[in-house]
């Protein structure tokens, strides 16, 4: 289990008992989520560096510098590392050496989220009201889309996008859900409903028929992935209260896991939306969960708690 924190540390713990195995200090705070692949771990820091560490020892294999602090989360795919920056760039590096493979230098605003890679394209949003699709191999712009707002606080920047059936789904603080053609970027539908004030939290069902979303009023909903507009097909039968956490909604083994900014993990039954259980970790935001061994999960919170639950 690899954890990063705002004290600048990357730490490894044994999943079986939570024993710390190693710790590596960076030169700044870390808001980035580490990504592991084989013997490599990559994570970004506000000291402007993207780090690649050895999984077993925490030793720094390489680090590369950007022009500004990095708060985005990297991803590894096919021996390459992809990461957005705060300096208007989105870069690709060779995983083994850290050498720069390509650099897209036209990002509006800064990137905070982890990109999604699908069918040779990289999808991500930035805090400049734009959402991007780049060619995975070359970094060339395939298409971009903007919501047309002059207010950058409405940017589709904090949600991790979802793709299913050649449709890209995104949500943003403007309370709209947008469905785009994954190939062309054309708008299939875009809907804002004052009764469904959905924000950044979203996810996809195990069978890809539903896009999960959470409203500011505390409703957890499932929307059709095939409809021509916003169509609610599933509803959790427990309101979690006012909530603006952007953490992912995920389905595992028939349970839909929803996280709150008040420290709760909610598990709803996929079959009927009823509440299976709720577990309170803290009084602050719960970060996206990690699942392992079929029935266990790791939960972490903004105040530093790390918990292993059997669900």
How would you briefly describe this protein structure?
By secondary structure, this protein is mainly β.
Number of helices: 0
> Sheet bearing the most strands, described?
4 strands, antiparallel
| Total DSSP E strands | 30
* Contiguous runs where pLDDT drops below 50 for at least 5 residues: none
- Structural class category: mainly beta
Rounded mean pLDDT score: 96
| Shape annotation | globular
Strand content: over 45%
Which CATH architecture of the largest domain? Beta Barrel
Name of the level-1 CATH class of the largest domain:
Mainly Beta
Residue share in helix: under 10%
Number of domains: 2
How are the strands of the largest sheet arranged?
A: 4-5-6-7
Give a written overview of the molecule:
- The chain is mainly β.
- The protein folds into 2 domains: 1-116, Lipocalin, CATH 2.40.128.630; 158-275, Lipocalin.
- It has strands at residues 2-4, 9-13, 20-25, 35-37, 40-44, 49-54, 60-65, 75-77, 80-84, 90-94, 100-104, 116-118, 121-125, 130-135, 141-146, 162-164, 167-171, 176-181, 187-192, 198-204, 210-215, 220-224, 232-235, 250-252, 255-259, 264-269, 275-280, 290-292, 296-300, 306-310.
- It has a 4-stranded antiparallel beta sheet with strand order 4-5-6-7, with no helix packed on it. A 4-stranded antiparallel beta sheet has the order 8-9-10-11, with no helix packed on it.
- A hairpin with a 2-residue loop joins strand 8 and strand 9 (80-84).
- It is globular.
- The chain starts with a strand and ends with a strand.
- The model has no long low-confidence stretch (mean pLDDT 96).
């Amino acid at each position: 289990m690899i954890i990063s924190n705002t004290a600048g540390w990357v730490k490894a713990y044994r999943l079986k008992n939570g024993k710390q195995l190693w710790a590596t200090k960076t030169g700044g705070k870390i808001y980035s989520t580490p990504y592991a692949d084989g013997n490599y771990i990559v994570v970004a820091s506000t000291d402007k560096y993207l780090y690649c560490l050895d999984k077993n020892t925490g030793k720094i294999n390489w680090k590369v510098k950007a022009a500004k602090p990095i708060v985005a989360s990297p991803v590894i795919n096919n021996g390459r590392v992809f990461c957005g920056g705060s300096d208007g760039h989105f870069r690709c590096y060779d995983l083994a050496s850290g050498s720069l493979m390509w650099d897209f230098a036209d990002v509006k605003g800064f990137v905070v989220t982890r990109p999604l890679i699908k069918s040779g394209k990289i999808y991500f949003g930035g805090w400049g009201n734009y959402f991007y699709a780049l060619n995975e191999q070359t970094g060339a712009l395939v298409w971009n889309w903007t919501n047309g707002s002059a207010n950058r606080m409405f940017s589709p920047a904090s949600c991790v996008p979802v793709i299913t059936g050649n449709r890209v789904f995104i949500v943003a603080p403007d309370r709209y859900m947008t469905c785009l053609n994954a190939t062309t970027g054309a708008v299939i539908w875009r809907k804002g409903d004052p009764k469904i004030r959905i924000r950044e939290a979203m996810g996809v069902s195990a069978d890809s028929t539903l896009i999960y979303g959470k409203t500011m009023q505390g409703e957890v909903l499932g929307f059709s992935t095939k409809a021509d507009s916003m169509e609610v097909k599933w509803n959790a039968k427990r309101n979690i209260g006012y909530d603006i956490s952007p953490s992912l909604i995920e389905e595992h083994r028939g349970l839909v896991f929803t996280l709150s900014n008040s420290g709760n993990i909610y598990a709803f039954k996929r079959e009927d939306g009823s509440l299976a259980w709720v577990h309170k970790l803290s009084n602050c935001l719960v970060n996206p969960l990690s699942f392992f061994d079929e029935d266990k999960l790791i939960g972490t919170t903004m105040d530093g708690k790390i918990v292993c639950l059997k669900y």
